[in-house]
Amino acid sequence: MAAAPVTTTPPDEPARGLVQGAGSAALAVSQAIGAMGLLASRIFSRIAKLELDRDELVRNLYRMGFQSMPIVIVTALFTGGIMVVQAAPLVNRIGAHGLLGWAAGFGTLREIAPLLTALMINGRVGANNTAELGTMVVTEQIDAMRVLAIDPVSFLVAPRFIAITATLFISTVFADVLALLGASMMGDALLGVAPVTFYNGLTSGLLGVGDIASGLVKSVLFGVLIGLSSCQFGLGVTGGAPGVGRAVNATVVASAAGVFVIDYFVSFTL
Amino acid sequence: MTPSLPTSSAESLMPARERGFVEDLGAVGLELLRTGRELYSLFLRTIYYSLRGRREPGALGQAMFEIGNRSLFFLTVVMGFIGMIMVYQGGAQTKRVLPDLTLLGATYLELLIRDLAASIGALMLATRVGAGIAAEIGSMVVTEQVDALRMCAADPVDYLVKPRFIACIVMMTVLGIWSATVAYLTGMLTAYVWFDVSPLTFSNLALVDVVDLGTGLAKCIAYGAAIPVVSGHAGLATFGGSEGVGSATTRAVVNSSLAVIMLNLLISATSFVLFG
After folding, report:
1. Is residue A40 part of a domain?
2. Terminal-to-terminal C-alpha distance of chain A
3. Scanning A24, A116, B26, B58, which has its CA 20 to 30 A from the CA of A90?
4. Does the distance separating the beta carbons of B269 and A85 come in below 8 Å?
5. Confidence band, pLDDT 50/70/90 cuts, at residue B16
6. Which of A187, A160, A183 is nearest to A113 (CA)?
7. Where are the alpha helices (DSSP H) in chain B?
8. B264 contacts A82? CB cut-off 8 A
9. By C-alpha distance, which of A247, A250, A269 is closest to A258?
10. How many domains are there within chain A?
11. Nearest Cβ partner of A135 from B128, B243, B272?
12. Residue A35 falls within a domain, yes or no?
């Protein structure tokens, strides 16, 4: 991705064969995972020793959590509506309007609400976090901190990590509720299923606490992944403004792919 | 939703809270209106240049390679996992209500063609391509290359947005079909391994009709048109150095994902109301 026509080709792009490409991709992936593991161990050691900057944590919780609310709300309402529209032909075919709540409910609670919330938070918070940390690296603010004997991990990285994880968990709780609300409204408008019928389908015993818990466990894991990868990619920025753009792009893609991979393993184990 | 990016300075802890609630609401409304109008104008100009602009097969080919081929691996991985997850969850839940899973494949294929392949593929493409377009155009704005284009009496929409627009529409359609294929194959494997549904029973196209196919393709084209326009807008509106590029990228990803979700509901509901 040549960001500017002035820089022709990046130095690491001679004509490569397929095997060479696959090998370097595998190396890059394992390097990223290893770096994230190292960062995680450093973050957790700071958290265990409670070496956190409280103000920074509050500030990040406000910016990441509270200010993402509009996006979470809009996404969840629309998603709930989409779930009903997609389930509608199926429900009509079986003729079981009472099952609409169940059909929309299990999909929303188990998969769609955590997944879409994670994708939106990844786009908004994860990308923003990488951009911010990357800008600080490029403008040498992190080096300045080290010179002043301020630990960048406990001052910058650990609060962000906690804030992203908390944001994703709380947003998923919101999204669960709002998506079901959107689904019941859409069911009423499109299929004529009264919200009471929808609610009964939801609570008729086919859905349990396990379904909600599965989604919430996922959201925490997604939060850990997005927090780690966005911090790691942000701290690894090189090369000015285009470098920040590239890093943001790389984070968003890596986190999105990682979210689906984690989702797969959690779905099969829970 | 003014994306003001406070730097690390400690005094900008929280934005000034002098404005009242109504004032905030109005500001948000005005901002939305302004963005909507700008998007509309950019969309019209892109369409105009797509029909009337310069023909440049080189730039178009490069954009298609960047958007299509480079996304192929990412999309294949994601859709492969999605196929397995959806069939597993759907099968496990359906078993609680219906004893036989012979229609699992047919229902899944209908859902896949009508919605999942296009929409999840587009969300992924919005993430990857949207961020890429905004980062690229944003860097060019920050390094004043876009101003240089304007100085040469060249409209940046013609040079930068139009090739990506055409490429994204074509490639979104192609990738949508590819996504459906990948998710279908992994879903078939999952159904065979976990629920003992034979691939022959699973490959049941009985429920897929022209409406489903048309809805899926219409979604591909709509998403393909929306993603580059929304992210191109975010990229062209970049200001203020590397921090600006970062926030433009963020806005591109969020707004194009929102656009995909909204278009999805719009098209799905329209097709359901019109064709049942």
Report:
1. no
2. 39
3. A116
4. yes
5. low
6. A183
7. 21-52, 57-64, 70-97, 104-111, 117-125, 131-142, 145-151, 156, 162-195, 199-202, 210-236, 241-275
8. yes
9. A250
10. 1
11. B243
12. no
How much of chain A is in helix, strand and coil states, percent to nearest 5? Answer: 85, 0, 15
Per-run averaged pLDDT (10 residues), chain A, 270 residues: 42 68 87 91 90 88 89 91 83 75 83 91 90 90 91 90 94 93 88 83 78 91 94 89 83 90 86
The answer to whether the CB atoms of A252 and B253 lie below 8 A apart is: yes
Kindly report, residue by residue over B123-153, the tens digit of the pLDDT: 999 988 998 899 889 989 988 999 999 999 8
Nearest neighbour of A252 by CB, restricted to B84, B127, B241: B127
With vertex at residue B163, the alpha carbon angle to CA B162 and CA B169, rounded to the nearest 5 degrees, is 90
pLDDT digits (tens, 9 = 90+) for A6-24: 434 444 555 678 888 888 8
Q: What is the pTM of this model?
A: 0.84
What ipTM was reported for this prediction? Answer: 0.81
Examine residue A5 and state whether it is found in any structural domain, yes or no.
no
Cβ-based neighbours of A169, under 8 Å, separated by 6 or more: A216, A219, A220, A223
CB contact under 8 A, B253 and A5: no
Give the chain B residue nearest A80 (alpha carbons).
B265
The residue segments making up the domain with residue A104 are: 46-269
Amino acid letter at B10?
A
Shortest CA distance from A187: residue in chain B: B269
